[in-house]
Amino acid sequence: MAEKKFPKDFVWGSATASYQIEGSPLADGTGPSIWHRFSHTPGTTHEGETGDVACDHYNRYKEDIKLMKSLGLKGYRFSISWSRIFPNGKGKINEKGVDFYNRVIDELLKENITPFVTIYHWDLPAALQDIGGWANRDIANWFGDYADYLFQRFGDRVKHWITLNEPWVMAFIGHMYGEHAPGMRDIYAAFTVAHNELRAHSKAVEAFRSQGINGKIGITLSNGSHDPASDSPQDVMAAKMAHEFSNYPLFLNPIFKGKYPEHIENFAKEFLPKGYEKDMDDIKKAIDFVGINYYSGDLVKADPSSPMGIKVIGRGLPKTEMGWEIYPEGFYKILKGVQDEYNPKEVYVTENGAAFDDKVENDAVHDQKRIDYLREHISQAHRAIEDGVKLKGYFVWSLMDNFEWAQGYSKRFGITYVDYKTQKRILKDSAKWYANVISKNAVE
Prior knowledge:
The protein is an alpha/beta fold. It has 16 helices and 13 strands. The protein has an eight-stranded parallel β-barrel, surrounded by six helices. It has a two-stranded antiparallel sheet with strand order 1-13. Strands 11-12 form a two-stranded antiparallel ribbon. α3 runs parallel beside α5 and α15 runs parallel beside α16. The longest helix has 25 residues. It is globular.
């Protein structure tokens, strides 16, 4: 088999999120987050599971960074818990929370692993939710102040910053479908949240530029490949709507072009906050990179009975444990699409991976399906680079099994197995395979 070589400065990494791995959600003066509250509310998560212990990374971060080092990771993407720094979301600072992230950052740098920091990965301080959360227009300023403070405290060492992780999921899964915190089902709130996330993102970019940090700032967006189920004009339009609504255009169009995608704006005018047009100039601010998360793809057909005229169907391909079809070709389409449509200076794959039903046998986990998944997707990333995509790095989701939001501990995405009873870490076969990819800077 031929080897596909990657550019010599390519960043191979893995990714995690604070609430999913840290545990100790109220330790050392931390305030509760909306995910702490949501997961403690009966009926919201698989078997009532919470992030109270998770992977105990709050206490075991040194061990986990040694693990990263052993795999040869060049980068590590993690998020900061807003309520560890500001227990009430604003005002009083919790120095012990700052200390924790200082220790993590210093330990990473000691091991020559580049920190990529996500400022917000869904765990809003509960105190802010009590005054409207992301639906409150003032959140843009609260978030700007929070980001500004992180740049002051960590910007001397952290040079890669991501404002928001998957704002679409936060807005719609959290506020329209009610499956994630804060568990609302309100389409007006959902579009208001999406708009306020863009405003908050731009405040963070502004703060970053004003601090004069010698580094880069971008945003991470969720994506699935939505292709028309047939060549009919109706299906083609339905797929376009699905793409504009749930992929990168909903956020990148405002950031790069100062306006919402045309079809979505027509649909959402009624739901967006009054006078939203006045914010569009502020939202349009240059960013240094776009982060792309990709897991799966589907087919879309026109369905006049649904609110947006869209029905999603499968191709009949093999699925992961999440029930998501495995469609590597779609990964290429998303990467190529974002480059062709917006021409960002740089692109990073900030998440890509799969959940499978992993079993421990004699202290080993033979997860061939995950290796196949990763190989095929990394090959498509290589193809994207060859076709002009300015892809600078790839972060596998996830470094280790963790709290999978509403799915609790029932889904394992890690390349490292976590025994939640003992907190023992076991490198899966996929971790060893990935370490080999990193050492060769190539995929077969």
